[in-house]
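Issue 218. Parser rejects a valid record. Input:
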Amino acid sequence: MLDIRWRKISCLIAVLLLVAPWASAQRNNPYYDDKTIHFGFLVGLNSSTFSMQHHAANYLLNDSMTYIQPSWGPGFHLGIIGDLRLAEHATLRFSPTLMFSQRNIDYSFVNPLNDIRRSIQVANVDIPLLLKFRSDRIDNFRMYMIGGMKYTIDMASQEKVVEDIERVKIIRNDLAYEVGIGFDFYLPYFKFSPEIKFAQGLNNVLVPEKHVYSNPIEALRARTIMISFNFE
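Output the parser choked on:
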């Protein structure tokens, strides 16, 4: 019986020792959110693809093709952050970002030997303007929602390249909306914010050409999921 009680007391002491530092800890950077403007940087990983619309008539003309399917490709991004305080629970964020990613389109034919994946390499300069809505701060933690629009310039676009290679080309400029959620963690010397966002392109970025890989497609719109780690 004594041994059982001692174990219970030991467990209670261990729990108190673990909880005590958190309970006694003071707020880190208590006046951080009172700043009118602050800066930071972000790094992250992304995955990108297209939402596709088929050109029905041209698709049916090519009876050797069984389907076309966009698929996700990997990427990474980095950028800088500028936040303007609008109110206690709202900020305006400007975060120009350089994003490298790959978008794939898979083609399947009656003869499986002709199956092929066309990959499109993307090097985007993203220029977003976003509104960030924050919850109340609880000790050293907040959660938030973020959303807005971004203008994108694809530095790797082959839009104006004239060549004989049959490849899918996309235009240089695009406009997209972004929505996401994140969490602010206030540390002693900076704020760390993991964040996930979804971006959907609004423009048809396909450069129409008369070959088997482009002709059956009516429209392509960029679609991206981004996981970012913000340091502010």
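Fixed in the parser; the record now loads. The chain is about 10% helix and 60% strand.
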